[in-house]
Amino acid sequence: MKSLKRPYFYYSDKRKIVPVASEELHIQARDILRSIRRKKIFKTIPKEYQDDWKNVSLFHTKGEIEKADSIILDPERGSYSLRNKLNHLEGKSWTKFTKSWFVFDALSKDLKEEKEITTKAGLNAEEHPATYSPSMMEDFIKFFTKENEIVFDPFSGIGSTLVACDRTNRTGIGIEINKKYCQIIKLRTKSKVIHGDSKNVKKLLKKHKVDKIDFCISSPPYWDILNRSTGKFSKIRSSKNLDINYSSFEEDIGNISDYKEFLSILSNIYLDIFSFIKPGGYLVVIVKNLKKSGKHYPLAWDLAKNLETKYSLKDEKIWCQDKVGLAPFGYPFGWTSNIVHHYCLIFKKDE
Ligand SMILES: C[S@@+](CC[C@H](N)C(=O)[O-])C[C@H]1O[C@@H](n2cnc3c(N)ncnc32)[C@H](O)[C@@H]1O
Q1: Is 89 contained in some domain?
Q2: Cα 248 to ligand 1 centre (Å)
Q3: Among 118, 128, 176, 251, which is best to mutate for testing ligand 1, by the most ligand atoms less than 8 A from CB?
Q4: Does residue 90 form part of some domain?
Q5: Is residue 19 within a helix (H) or strand (E), and if so which, with residue range?
Q6: Which residues pair with 12 in a beta bridge?
Q7: With pLDDT > 90 as the criterion, what percentage of the chain qualifies?
Q8: CB contact at 8 A, 252 and 266
Q9: How many CB atoms neighbour CB 6 within 10 A?
Q10: Which tens digit of pLDDT belongs to each residue from 258-296?
Q11: For the segment 71-99, what is each residue's pLDDT rounded down to a tens digit?
Q12: Chain-centre distance of CA 238, in angstroms?
């Protein structure tokens, strides 16, 4: 290239992204990039690309410039499609997330961070008996939203989803029934938390002037599983003066002991959220199948069936925990599993 300082047009050669050979095509690509800079679409592309536009190039797999609708910042990372309406991911990261299972155990960096922030204020994040890591939530949020979009968690706990929103530059909104957990959320994030009962989700969102949600993700109480935990878990937590369940409030759906009633109330909360989700937006519910007194209750499957009355069930991503102690269930008589996987059920509100 004689007259240009750098390449402006790339294509794919044997799975590697490389500059095309023709200088004429680079000049054309530079002009196309200049025109994109002035178009509406510019505002929808990742901020990182906008901020570093002088280093962005155009891309087409076969090097056909008239069909080029992707851009690249770093050829190693792959290309970002200008037609991407869902998120800010490049093709490589998009594909990586679509694997139907993943292994994730709580990250010590997340635990350390939540401990430091809460201890300073005389609170204890460990009090909550069932949290997940913001790092795990970040991956979901990055796949199902673009920056600045609105993410809602109706069962916020101590705010892992909302912390992930801060980290990824999304607007987080949550509802949590336990005031003590709301206080912890307020220490951890600048996202909005509503102290209230998600059974009143419609009223609460209206009251707080939320009329559109881009993406909803949450992990509800797994029925009354915590009220039934005996043995090591409750002994250790009691000895440390930590909560064994979420609360003793009647409104806490983790205190409903009848399965059918629990399933119906939980389903209705997610069905109520439907009208707030934008057309084309997604709902992810992280939940488990359970056992009670030796009987199997397929909570994840039952919930999926109920929510299909409004949402399209896309499928699931299975979350596996690997660093969990196993108990000798069933031994030596028959099969009873140690359930160490969760269903991340993925629903869509069709356009
Ligand atoms: C599995 S935990 C969520 C944990 C959260 N994902 C985190 O990482 O911190 C479920 C939460 O739902 C809350 N909850 C139970 N019933 C509720 C209700 N009716 N409305 C709002 N929150 C409720 C519980 O207090 C508990 O914190």
Answers
A1: no
A2: 13
A3: 176
A4: no
A5: strand 16-19
A6: 17
A7: 81
A8: no
A9: 11
A10: 999 999 999 999 999 999 999 999 999 999 999 998 899
A11: 999 999 999 999 999 999 999 999 999 99
A12: 31
pLDDT class of 165 with cuts at 50, 70, 90: very high
Dmax over CA atoms of the chain, in Å, equals 79
Distance, CA 177 to ligand 1 centroid (Å)? Answer: 7
> Is there a single domain that holds both residue 167 and residue 215?
yes
Q: Indicate if 56 and 156 belong to the same structural domain.
A: no
Predicted pLDDT of residue 232: 73
User: Which H/E stretch holds residue 26?
Assistant: helix 23-37
Of 34, 54, 84, the last residue of a domain is 84
Burial of 340 (0-12, 13-18, 19+ CB in 10 A): middle
Flag whether 94 is in a domain.
Answer: no
Mutate which of 217, 251, 252, 262 to test ligand 1's pocket (most atoms within 8 Å of Cβ)? 252
248 pLDDT above the threshold of 90: no
